[in-house]
Amino acid sequence: MVRKESRQEIRAKKHRRMRNHLSGTAARPRLAVFRSNQHMYAQIIDDTAGNTLVSASTLEKEVQAELKKTNDVEAAAYLGSVIGKRAVDAGIKEVVFDRGGFIYQGKIAALAEAAREAGLEF
């Protein structure tokens, strides 16, 4: 019997493969992005120490207050600007972008572009 892998399993496999090459350091932490059907999450992680330095998600009340919907491209762009501003305030300029196995288009690309406009370099 043929067994087809689910999209979630395929994405997780891609993410594991990417993580073999990507790692966040204190000098250049990792910007990890995750999206579910309803929300998006972004966090900047120092993998050597195992610490989350900055985080933002569409679950936060101050972020939700600015959005009509939490699962569209506009919400992703706003979340990217929020994480970018918080990172710059924390003194983080350069990051490594970890798209989490998701394809770089739509919401992921909008978040990345907004974070770049907010002052992050990757």
Topology:
Layout: H1 7-19, E1 30-35, E2 40-46, E3 51-57, H2 61-64, H3 73-89, E4 96-98, H4 107-117
Parallel strand pairs: 1-4
Antiparallel strand pairs: 1-2, 2-3
Any key phrases for this structure?
4-stranded mixed beta sheet; 122 residues; alpha+beta
Account of the 3D structure:
With 122 residues, the chain is an alpha+beta fold. It has one domain: Nucleotidyltransferase, domain 5 (2-Layer Sandwich), CATH 3.30.420.100. The protein is built from four helices and four strands, in the order αβββααβα. The chain has helices at 7-19, 61-64, 73-89, 107-117, and strands at residues 30-35, 40-46, 51-57, 96-98. Strands 3-2-1-4 form a four-stranded mixed beta sheet, sandwiched between helices. Strand 2 and strand 3 (51-57) form a beta hairpin. Helix 3 (73-89) runs parallel beside helix 4. The protein is globular and about 55 Å long. The model has no long low-confidence stretch (mean pLDDT 95).
Concise summary:
The chain has 122 residues and is α+β, with helices and mostly antiparallel strands. The protein is built from 4 helices and 4 strands; from the N terminus they run αβββααβα.
With strands numbered from the N-terminus, the spatial order across the biggest sheet is 3-2-1-4
Distance between the termini: 44 Å
Mean pLDDT: 95
Query: Percent helix among the residues?
Result: 25-40%
Q: Give the C-alpha Rg.
A: 15 Å
Total strands: the figure is 4
Individual helix count: 4
Q: What is the general shape?
A: globular
Low-confidence stretches: none
**What number of domains?**
1
| Strand/helix succession | HEEEHHEH
Q: What is the top-level CATH class? A: Alpha Beta
CATH level-3 fold name: Nucleotidyltransferase, domain 5
Q: What is the architecture at the second tier of CATH? A: 2-Layer Sandwich
Query: Which structural class best describes the helix and strand composition?
Result: alpha+beta
